[in-house]
Every structure is written in structure tokens, then in C-alpha cells.
């Protein structure tokens, strides 16, 4: 779980944040003013200060907020001046935008506010369409406007060039004031409430937010233009209302609710991607007509409200089609306000104790939750003051705990000279018989502490006024229990004024005499001390002083707790707090540093002594075990073989007619010998026409009796019934299994078993278990058996080959040490792959054992151990296994055809594709029958229109074409007779694996230097590209800290999509427009380099991927293909992406290829690379139909390409030459000297 923040404001206007990875409230010390309310999202926090102005706090990031300003310089040719700025009257401006309609000279660009700064001066963009232009950056055309080209021709009469300048947002991690100005000038009145949301209305444009505000006069305003490159927005727009509003709430999607002065609620309708402010209001009655609503909070699919009597209500029936819901449900608890955060989690502030509460049990199936739980964490100032007191008390105690406390102690009171709070000091060695001083008299005129019970903002002013009043007798009142129902807390009767010191100094006095909260040892004896009184202190305590009494005294070392020590919260916002019902938080049972010191005092043995004691016991046991085992060395082993059998029932897929699932009995019998060598056999039996037969391959074996393999073995048996006299069966040794693959199936828990021969024949053994747990048990057991038969144990080695399937499963292969030097390496189909827990989209590694991965949701992960997933117990490491989540989208297409009568409709021609289909149009996929990729995935959102599809869309998400399937575009023409639009729905997978999240920047590509670091502290170069196209360099990556420390942003003029770093710190990258770049002067002293060099692409080609080795650079181009030029074939094949380690570079071919991950293109090699000229000179075409290329540290090349539709293959090339040997499904190679 990535770290996120919960924001809150106390009654004194101080803003605090609580991290999901922390255990204390951190105060925002940069806040000069006092705040009334805040509303937070993941990337920023908005607030209203006491001056009624709105302020913005943008969280700092390793990737800065940059915005590119651009303008075009236009010139026309004339016979006298050649090209000049003397344009015709009908021409565009000399300095203009891209359309030429707006005048944009260089000096007209101003910073939006003082929160921005310029990165540099204006410069010319010399990149045009992915290719470098001439030095001046000019592009030529016949006239304005026309199609521009980079080369000047004889008829080029006009030209233009683009000027670029970047500005950077600098006001991060501080509160920046937002101007209160609308389109027509300053706003008439200040603001009173604010709410931020709307980031899930649409994924395009990215980073867009909706900000709603309420003024003191009850008007509602909407902030326009808030997105990633403009966090402040552009201006305010007033929204018409049916009445005066007091409070408003905006959810992540299209839900916006507000509360009227009369207590009714209104709901905003018509919120869409193109109209985020909505179109109309609908009135909803209050949950309680007698007590109107005063507060409302909305989320994705929930609405919570609070009425004037502080009752909490939940609105049922809320969804995107019915934003008004169907009815109210009363909930338990009384709150001042509530707030709905991410994942519809609910936060609230109790009206009784002003504490922050979290709603437990909120899930997608039970949105109302189960119970309220208080957030019990201290503030940062509390821990500092308490820890200093605890440390001093520990030093002053001067006792060594070895079972019983023997030190003598008495308490004395030190009164402030001005009658201030009491201070308790622990004095060691004082006379045990000295009487304690009398408690000071309590002035009845001293004002009593009060806890206001109001729900409006007036209580803030009331509490602020109390700052001038000194509350001298607040020790007992402020240490009360968290739940205080009364507004005023009495200090007690006169008899309580003469209590013994143990009672006066106890922080649990207000909670009751019989409830000492902070005593954690010998509670019964502590209660006796409290009951007896001063006699215990003066007499027996000198000899029988308990540890609990010492702990109780120590609590009062610091300043007494006043109203300012235990915050009373006024507002809370969880819009940026990414928690759910399964999150492991330390907020509810955490103790302060003071309580920790008390617990440490209660230990009879120090941690150092405990460690030494355990070490001594371990050494003694080890020595005894070794001594006893030596006595039996000369004896022979009693049992030379061990046998165990595991049986079960499964289903087997019969892949010949009639195709169906057949019930089988499944058994695994394993034999192990004295040396631990193992082997195995695979059997398969089936019924066909009431006759037992076996469908086998070339290794079928007929036997008339039960055959035993006398060598030590383990084998797998699938049986229907008892064996008949004549038995036909197929056998395959366990050490011939090359991979065990989970298979994508929307209804069954299936997996496939492959051998080298079955890979060639495309005939794997497909099995289905009854439950997911049973499938995982069998996969783990079979995987361990396969590893044992090959002598593979523990985590992958540093030379392991890593790969990722199209399903997201992670596999590793252990090459032999001599594999690289051997002229005939192991063919790809004979390599054994074992699975590692986790789920990733791509993985990258190097020869030092540093492994990074990126999920489908662009989350970065770093490898930490071995196991996870279905590996449990001995097959997995117990440490460094984390919960891993991944989110991906399932896409379906809505297709329509135009006819002259009705226009576009869902009635197509008989030869057309399904009106609801997949990307190919061959399979019917509707919203109702579309399912997640497998039962392991769960839906987390509803169907939405995807506007981010390549080629662009119109306002409704449609793409147009002349026919199915053709090239689609986002605008309609006269020749377009068909159209389509893509619908997306998110699903989520939760698993475990040895992967630790690297927050907070989402990535799209990552690359690690293949080898280079010679020590554990030497930095390892690692580069990445964010999902927005920013180039990043990771700092602090070493063998000891593979996750690194921070990101360093590397500036670019355009977004990138692929990057690779090779030998000698060669960094090559591909931009999204298909152009290639080389980063110069990258070294250990300058890890980010100095500048980008534009490398010309192959003629009329745009590149999509690059891979760099020691002295070679390979790229794959787009080859002019789109998703309409090929179709997805559903065959029994599995695609593996590559990650190359130092030893070798290969990929494997296996099962269940359901989606095309990249478009095939041409493979190119960069010629002329030398140390003095690392950019190279020209491109050489190697081959075509390549999907991905990966180069190893010794310049060995691995590529993935199509052998035939639906099947992929691989080949490896050395730095000298390579020779292919082809079979039916795979291409292997033999290196040639």
C-alpha cells in the first residue's frame, strides 16, 4: 500500500496530516494562518483560512509540474527580402498560435501567478514529426495553412518554426493563496466551504479536478481549468441554485450534493466529461424532517449525512444512474461531521469527545460499514515532550530490573510560583518516611474547562477566545477518557482535594479511582495503593514498591495536559487517504512514546540480555545436536527410500472431438533416496466409448502389469478407475516438465503442464481444480517436485532469466554457468521455468540481482525475496513477502453502421461484426456477459466510455471509418459508414509476492544497467519513464538498497515511451512521436547527463522500442501497423515478455495468448557506434515481424516475433552471427564463431 495522508483541522485552526505509514499527527508548520476547513485529494490539499480565502498545498514530487508554452514564428518569401516577416494582409500574424488566429508574441506570455517560475529562455524546437530539421528549425509549405515539410522546395512560399519555453510550479509543500476572481472580476463575497473531487469523471485529460466552493451568502462557485499542468485552475464560475447553500460535497466521480439553509439537500445532475459543473439540481428531503440536515458527504457510490441532532444517516440506492438514491438509513453514533474518502471509506468527528473516527467494515458489498473506531495516535509535539520526560525518568530511576523493583522512591510536588500547573518529579534516594507535601488549594473562581458542543464554525471563534484564559486546574480534566458526554467537567468534591499523591498525580484520576489507565504491571497491587492512600507511600512502599507505582509516577514528569495537549478536532478530510477495509494501519492501537517507555520499564530483562541469552541457548543446542549426530555416523541408513502420495479429483480438457472437460482422479506419488535424487512419471487415463484408452504422443508405452521404476522417483498419476488387465497409458518424467502455467479462464481454475515435446505439438495437459485454493496447492506441490528433480532450491540466482506472461505471471529460468560459452545453448523449448509470486506487466533485471517490475496499473515494484502467491511454507521465504495489487481494464467495443433512414444504428449487415464485440469483432462481448480475465480478478468500477483510444474520439467517444475493419479516426467524414466506441471497466487482483512497492510515481517503462557495480554500496544506474512520459533517473540504487532513495527528473521537450541503458552508461530513448534520442555525458558523477541528442530514424519509419547492450543498439519500429491490421487469435499459446540478465537472453513460448501486447515491426541495428561517437552513423535493417527486442551485456540479442497467426517465437543472436533451426512452433539457434 502506497503512503497517503489523512488531513484534519483542530478547533484552533491548526492543520495536521496523518500518514498511512506513520503513527502520529504531523502539523503543517508552514501554515501562517489558521484554517477552518480542508479538502484533500492524493496530489494536493485545498483549504479555507480564517480570512475566508482559499489556499492550495501541492505535495512535492520528484517529477516537477511543468507547462510548455509555445508560439510560432511565421514568414513569407518575396523576391526582394527572401523569407522575412513582411506578410500579406490576409496572412496570419507574424507570431501566432498553431492555428494562426491568435496573436502570440514572445513578450505576451506572463506567469499565471507568483507560484510559477520560468525554467529558461525561449528556444527553437528542431524536431518535426520525429525527425530533426535544419538548424533553424524551419518547416516549409506552399501557403498558409497547408501541410508543412522539413525540406525546402522550389515552390515553398511560406515557412514557420516553433518556439518553446517551460514554466515550473514552485509553491509545493506550502500554502499558496488562490485569487478570488471570476471571469468578470473579484468575487462579491468570501468563501465558507469547499470540496474537491471529480478525478474519476474521465481519465482524459489526466489529472483534472473539480473544485466546488460555497460563499458566505450561500452561493456556489465552480473552479475551472484544474488539471495536472495547472493545479491552481483558471477562474471561478457561479452555479445557479434553488436556494442558499451552507455546505457542499463532491465525490471522485459525478456525485455532488449540497445542504440548503432550510435543512434540505440538493443533488447536481448532468455532470459529464464535457460538462463537469453539471446542468441542474434535484431537491432531496432531509432524513429527519424535524431536524434538518447540516452536513453531507459523498463518495463513489455512497452518501452520508448529519442532521441537527448529530445523528448520522446513510443513503441507499446510490449509483451513477440514480445519483439521488432511494432512501435513508439511520446509523449508530453522533457526529459533528463526516467525510467520505477513497474507496468509499468514511471518517467522522464525534460530537462527544471531538476525536476522529474511522468507519470499519466498509466494502463494495457493505457500503454502510459496521462500527466506528477512534483514531488513537498522538501529535508530533506530544511524543517529543513525553519521550523527554520518559528518558529522564528512566535515568533517575537508577534501577536494574531482574525480576523485582527494589529502588525506593517518593513523590514531591513543585508548584509554579504563579499558581500554575503542578509538576511531579521522581526523586531517587529520598527519605521514605518524609511526609508528602500537602496539595495546593484549588481556587473555586478558576474557570472550568469546557468542551463545546456546537456544529457550526462559531465554536472555532469560541475556542480561540479561550486562549486568553489560563486553566490552572486542568490536570484532572484534560486527562479524561476519550469519551466525555458532559460539556463541563467538575474537579470533584472537597474530599478529593486531600487525596494521596498517588491519586493526585495519576493521569487516570478523571477516569475513576479504580481505573489506573497507565499501570501495566501488578494491577491488583496498584489498586491497593490507590485504596490505602498516604499510608502506603509513607510506610510499606519503602520495602514493597511495585513497578506499577513507578510507572504511574513517571507519567507526570512533563507538563500537565491542558486543552492544547489533546487536540479537539473540527474537520477531517480523507479524499487523499488510500485505505480500505483490509489496510493494516497502526492508528487504532498505537501508544505514545511515554507508554512505550512504561512498557520497557516493565520488562525484567533488557533486550541486550535477551539477545545474549538466546544466542547462548542456540549455541548450546547446536553443539549438542552435532555431538549426538557424530555418534551415529558409522550406522547405515535404516530406510533408503521415502514414499508419500497425494490424491485428488480434477478435470482434464480433452482437446479432440468431442471437446469437453472430463473428470479424473489425480495422484502424486513421490520417492526420495538417500542422496535426495528424484524423478517422476506423468500418467493420463480417460474413457472413450466406454473403453479405457490413453491418448499419447511418441512416448506411449504399453504394459500388461503394474510397472515400477526402481530408480528413486516421483510421478504424477491421473486415473479414472482401477486399472484393467490390459492398460494403455502415457508416461513422461517429471524432470521433462518445462513449465506449469495458470491459464486464463473466466469460469474454471485451470493450469497447463508443458514438456518440450508437448510444446512442439501444441498439446499441453490442461487441468481444472474445483477451487482456487486447490489449484494453488497442486501448483505449489508440482512446482516443488519439478525443482527438486533438478536440484533447484531457494531464490533465483543473480544470473536468472526473468519473464512475464501476458496474464501477468512471473517466471524465472536458471541457466547453466556454461550456457553462454557453449556453442550450442539449450533450446528455448527445453528450458525449465518456475513461477515467482506476484503480478506484473513487465520486469527488468541485471547481472547483480537487482530486479524491478511494473504492474498494469503502472505501479513500480522492486524484488525483495522468493515465494508469495500460491507458494507457502518451506517453498517460500517468510520475510519480505508483501501484499500486491494490480488493476487493469477490460475493453469491449460498441459497433454501429449508418443507413439513410435512421442514421447510425446497431443494425448491421449480415457480414458485419457483432454490434458488441471484442477488438477483433470475432467474439460477441456485451456489458452483461463480459467477465474479468479470471476468477482471481474482481470488478472495482462500472462500465465507462474510454476517450483515450489511439486515433482520437469525438465528444461522445465514437471513432469513424469507411468499413469494418479499417483505420479509425475521431471525426466524421462523408465517406464514414461505420463507427465504434470503446467501453472500459476496471478489475482488481490481490495477491502476495516478494515485491515491495516503490511509490509514488507510476511508471510505464524501466531499465537497469546490465552490469557494472563492483561493491554493495556502488550506485547502479536505473532509468524509467512515468506514465505521463517524463524521463526519470533513480538515485541511491545499490545492492543493499535496490529500491533506491529518490527520483531525479530529466527534462525533455516531449513525452517518451521507451528507454534503455547499456554499457558505458549509454542511454537511448524513444519519444511518443517515434523519434529516437541519445543522452549525452551520463556518468557516475553526472547520473542524469547533460543533454539529449536527436537521432534520425530509419527513412519513413517511427520507432516504438529500443534496447542497448554493451556496444550495440537495436530498435523496433511501428512499421505503419495499427490494431486494425491484425487480429487476436485465441490459441493455446502463452507470450512472455523479456528481461535479460548477464548470463543469457532468451524467452519461452507457452500457453494462453489472449491479447496482443504490441504491434509487430522491423528490427533495426545502429551502425557506427564508437566510444568517440556513441550516437552511431546509420541504421541497418535486420528482419521484420518483430514485437520486442532485448540485448544482453555481451550483445546477445533476443527477439520475439510471429511464427504464424496466434503463435509467437524467439531467437537469440550473438555479437558475431546466428544460425536458425526451425520446428513447428519454435525457433532455436546455434551460435557460429
Automatic annotation (TrEMBL):
The answer to keyword Repeat applying to this record is: yes
Highest taxon of source:
Eukaryota
**Annotated keywords:** Repeat
**Disordered: annotated span:** 428-449
Quote the InterPro entries the UniProt record gives: Beta-propeller_rpt_TECPR (IPR006624), Peroxin/Ferlin (IPR006614), TECPR1-like_DysF (IPR010482), Tectonin_beta-prop (IPR051513)
The record, for PANTHER family, names:
DYSFERLIN-RELATED, TECTONIN BETA-PROPELLER REPEAT-CONTAINING PROTEIN 1 ISOFORM X1
The family note in this entry says: Belongs to the TECPR1 family.
Protein name according to UniProt = Tectonin beta-propeller repeat containing 1
Q: Which organism is it from?
A: Oncorhynchus kisutch
Amino acid at each position: 500500500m502506497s503512503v497517503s495522508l489523512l488531513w484534519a483541522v483542530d478547533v484552533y485552526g491548526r492543520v495536521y496530516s496523518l500518514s498511512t505509514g506513520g503513527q502520529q499527527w504531523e502539523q503543517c508548520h508552514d501554515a501562517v494562518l489558521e484554517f477552518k476547513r480542508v479538502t484533500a485529494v492524493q496530489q494536493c490539499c485545498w483549504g479555507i483560512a480564517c480570512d475566508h480565502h482559499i489556499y492550495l498545498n501541492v505535495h512535492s514530487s520528484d517529477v516537477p509540474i511543468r507547462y510548455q508554452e509555445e508560439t510560432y514564428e511565421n514568414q513569407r518569401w518575396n523576391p526582394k527580402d527572401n523569407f522575412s516577416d513582411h506578410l500579406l494582409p490576409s496572412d496570419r500574424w507574424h507570431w501566432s498560435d498553431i492555428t494562426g488566429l491568435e496573436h502570440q508574441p514572445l513578450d505576451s506570455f506572463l506567469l499565471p501567478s507568483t507560484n510559477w517560475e520560468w525554467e529558461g529562455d525561449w528556444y527553437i524546437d528542431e524536431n518535426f514529426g520525429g525527425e530533426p530539421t535544419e538548424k533553424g528549425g524551419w518547416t516549409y509549405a506552399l501557403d498558409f495553412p497547408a501541410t508543412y515539410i522539413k525540406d525546402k522546395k522550389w515552390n515553398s512560399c511560406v515557412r514557420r518554426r516553433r518556439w518553446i519555453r517551460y514554466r515550473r510550479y514552485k509553491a509545493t509543500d506550502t500554502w499558496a493563496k488562490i485569487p478570488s476572481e471570476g471571469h468578470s472580476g473579484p468575487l462579491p463575497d468570501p468563501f465558507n466551504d469547499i470540496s474537491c473531487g471529480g478525478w474519476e469523471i474521465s481519465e482524459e485529460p489526466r489529472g483534472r479536478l473539480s473544485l466546488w466552493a460555497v460563499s458566505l451568502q450561500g452561493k456556489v462557485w465552480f473552479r475551472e481549468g484544474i488539471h495536472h499542468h495547472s493545479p491552481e485552475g483558471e477562474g471561478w464560475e457561479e452555479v445557479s441554485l434553488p436556494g442558499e447553500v451552507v455546505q457542499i460535497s463532491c465525490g471522485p466521480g459525478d456525485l455532488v450534493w449540497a445542504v440548503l439553509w432550510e435543512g434540505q439537500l440538493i443533488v447536481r445532475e448532468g455532470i459529464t466529461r464535457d460538462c463537469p459543473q453539471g446542468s441542474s439540481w434535484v431537491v432531496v428531503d432531509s432524513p429527519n424532517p424535524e431536524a434538518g440536515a447540516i452536513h453531507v458527504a459523498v463518495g463513489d457510490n455512497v452518501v452520508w449525512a448529519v442532521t441537527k441532532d448529530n445523528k448520522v444517516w446513510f443513503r441507499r440506492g446510490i449509483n451513477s444512474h440514480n445519483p439521488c438514491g432511494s432512501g435513508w438509513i439511520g446509523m449508530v453514533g453522533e457526529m459533528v461531521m463526516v467525510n467520505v474518502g477513497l474507496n468509499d471509506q468514511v471518517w467522522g468527528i464525534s460530537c462527544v469527545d471531538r476525536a476522529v473516527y474511522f468507519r470499519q467494515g466498509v466494502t463494495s458489498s457493505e457500503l454502510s460499514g459496521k462500527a466506528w473506531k477512534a483514531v488513537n495516535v498522538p501529535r508530533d509535539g506530544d511524543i517529543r515532550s513525553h519521550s523527554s520526560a520518559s528518558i529522564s525518568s528512566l535515568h533517575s530511576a537508577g534501577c536494574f530490573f531482574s525480576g523485582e523493583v527494589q529502588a525506593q522512591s517518593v513523590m514531591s510536588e513543585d508548584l509554579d510560583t504563579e499558581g500554575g500547573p503542578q509538576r511531579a518529579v521522581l526523586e531517587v534516594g529520598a527519605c521514605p518516611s518524609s511526609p508528602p507535601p500537602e496539595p495546593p488549594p484549588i481556587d473555586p473562581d478558576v474557570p472550568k474547562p469546557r468542551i463545546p458542543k456546537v456544529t457550526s464554525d462559531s465554536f472555532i471563534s469560541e475556542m480561540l477566545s479561550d486562549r486568553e484564559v489560563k486553566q490552572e486546574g486542568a490536570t484532572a480534566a484534560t486527562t479524561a477518557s476519550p469519551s466525555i458526554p458532559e460539556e463541563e467537567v467538575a474537579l470533584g468534591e472537597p474530599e478529593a482535594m486531600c487525596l494521596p499523591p498517588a491519586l493526585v498525580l495519576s493521569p487516570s484520576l478523571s477516569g475513576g479511582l479504580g481505573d489506573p489507565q497507565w499501570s501495566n504491571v501488578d494491577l491488583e497491587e496498584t489498586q491497593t495503593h490507590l485504596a490505602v492512600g498516604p499510608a502506603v507511600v509513607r510506610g510499606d512502599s519503602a520495602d514493597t514498591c511495585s513497578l506499577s507505582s513507578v510507572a504511574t509516577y513517571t507519567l507526570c514528569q512533563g507538563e500537565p495536559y491542558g486543552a492544547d495537549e489533546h487536540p479537539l478536532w473540527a474537520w477531517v478530510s480523507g479524499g487523499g487517504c488510500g485505505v480500505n477495509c483490509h489496510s493494516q494501519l497502526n492508528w487504532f492501537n498505537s501508544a505514545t512514546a511515554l507508554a512505550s517507555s512504561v512498557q520497557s520499564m516493565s520488562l525484567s530483562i533488557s533486550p541486550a540480555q535477551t539477545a545474549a541469552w538466546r544466542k547462548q541457548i542456540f549455541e548450546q543446542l547446536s553443539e549438542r545436536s552435532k555431538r549426538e549426530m557424530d555418534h551415529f555416523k558409522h550406522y547405515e541408513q535404516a530406510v533408503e527410500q521415502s514414499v508419500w502420495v497425494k490424491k485428488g479429483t480434477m478435470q482434464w480438457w480433452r482437446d479432440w472431438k468431442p471437446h469437453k472437460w472430463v473428470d479424473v482422479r489425480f495422484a502424486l506419488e513421490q520417492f526420495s533416496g538417500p542422496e535426495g535424487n528424484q524423478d517422476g512419471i506423468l500418467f493420463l487415463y480417460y474413457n472413450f466409448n466406454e473403453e479405457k484408452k490413453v491418448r499419447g504422443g511418441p512416448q506411449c508405452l504399453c504394459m500388461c502389469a503394474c510397472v515400477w521404476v526402481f530408480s528413486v522417483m516421483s510421478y504424477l498419476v491421473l486415473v479414472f478407475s482401477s486399472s484393467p488387465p490390459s492398460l494403455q497409458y502415457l508416461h513422461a518424467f517429471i524432470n521433462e516438465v518445462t513449465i506449469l502455467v495458470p491459464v486464463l479462464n473466466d469460469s474454471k481454475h485451470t493450469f497447463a503442464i508443458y514438456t518440450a515435446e508437448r510444446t512442439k505439438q501444441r498439446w499441453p495437459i490442461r487441468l481444472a481444480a474445483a477451487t482456487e485454493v486447490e489449484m494453488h496447492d497442486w501448483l505449489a506441490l508440482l512446482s516443488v517436485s519439478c525443482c527438486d528433480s533438478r536440484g533447484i532450491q531457494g531464490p533465483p540466482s543473480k544470473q536468472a532469466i526473468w519473464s512475464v506472461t501476458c496474464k501477468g505471471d512471473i517466471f524465472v529460468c536458471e541457466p547453466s554457468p556454461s550456457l553462454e560459452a557453449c556453442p550450442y545453448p539449450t533450446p528455448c523449448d527445453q528450458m525449465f521455468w518456475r513461477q515467482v509470486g506476484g503480478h506484473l506487466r513487465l520486469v527488468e533485471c541485471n547481472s547483480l540481482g537487482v530486479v524491478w517490475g511494473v504492474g498494469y496499473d503502472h505501479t513500480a515494484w522492486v524484488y525483495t525475496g522468493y515465494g508469495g502467491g500460491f507458494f507457502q511454507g518451506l517453498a517460500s521465504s517468510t520475510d519480505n513477502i508483501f501484499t500486491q495489487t494490480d488493476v487493469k481494464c477490460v475493453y469491449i467495443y460498441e459497433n454501429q453502421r449508418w443507413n439513410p433512414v435512421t442514421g447510425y444504428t446497431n443494425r448491421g449487415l449480415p457480414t458485419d461484426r457483432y454490434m458488441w464485440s471484442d477488438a477483433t469483432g470475432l467474439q460477441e462481448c456485451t456489458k452483461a456477459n463480459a467477465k474479468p480475465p479470471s476468477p482471481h480478478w474482481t470488478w472495482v468500477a462500472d462500465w465507462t466510455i474510454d476517450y483515450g483510444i489511439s486515433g482520437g474520439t469525438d465528444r461522445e467517444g465514437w471513432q469513424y471509418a469507411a468499413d469494418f475493419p479499417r483505420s479509425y479516426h475521431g471525426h466524421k467524414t462523408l465517406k464514414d459508414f461505420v463507427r465504434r466506441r470503446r467501453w472500459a471497466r476496471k478489475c482488481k487482483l490481490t495477491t502476495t509476492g516478494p515485491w515491495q512497492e516503490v511509490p509514488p510515481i507510476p511508471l510505464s517503462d524501466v531499465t537497469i544497467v546490465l552490469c557494472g557495480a563492483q561493491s554493495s554500496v556502488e550506485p547502479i544506474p536505473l532509468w524509467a519513464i512515468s506514465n505521463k512520459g517524463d524521463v526519470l533517473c533513480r538515485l541511491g540504487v545499490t545492492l543493499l538498497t535496490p529500491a533506491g532513495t529518490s527520483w531525479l527528473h530529466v527534462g525533455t521537450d516531449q513525452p517518451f515511451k521507451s528507454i534503455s541503458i547499456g554499457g558505458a552508461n549509454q542511454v537511448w530513448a524513444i519519444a511518443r512521436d517515434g523519434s529516437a534520442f541519445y543522452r549525452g555525458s551520463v556518468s557516475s558523477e553526472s547520473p542524469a547527463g547533460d543533454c539529449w541528442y536527436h537521432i534520425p530514424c530509419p527513412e519513413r519509419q517511427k520507432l516504438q522500442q529500443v534496447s542497448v547492450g554493451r556496444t550495440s543498439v537495436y530498435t523496433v519500429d511501428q512499421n505503419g501497423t495499427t490494431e486494425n491490421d491484425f487480429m487476436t487469435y485465441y490459441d493455446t499459446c502463452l507470450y512472455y515478455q523479456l528481461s535479460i540478465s548477464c548470463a543469457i537472453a532468451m524467452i519461452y513460448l507457452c500457453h494462453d495468448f489472449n491479447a496482443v501486447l504490441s504491434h509487430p515491426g522491423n528490427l533495426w541495428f545502429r551502425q557506427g557506434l564508437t566510444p568517440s561517437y556513441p550516437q552511431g552513423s546509420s541504421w541497418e535493417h535486420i528482419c521484420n515481424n518483430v514485437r520486442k527486442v532485448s540485448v544482453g551485456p555481451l550483445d546477445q540479442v533476443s527477439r520475439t516475433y510471429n511464427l504464424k497467426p496466434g503463435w509467437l517465437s524467439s531467437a537469440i543472436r550473438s555479437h558475431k552471427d546466428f544460425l536458425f533451426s526451425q520446428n513447428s512452433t519454435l525457433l532455436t539457434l546455434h551460435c557460429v564463431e
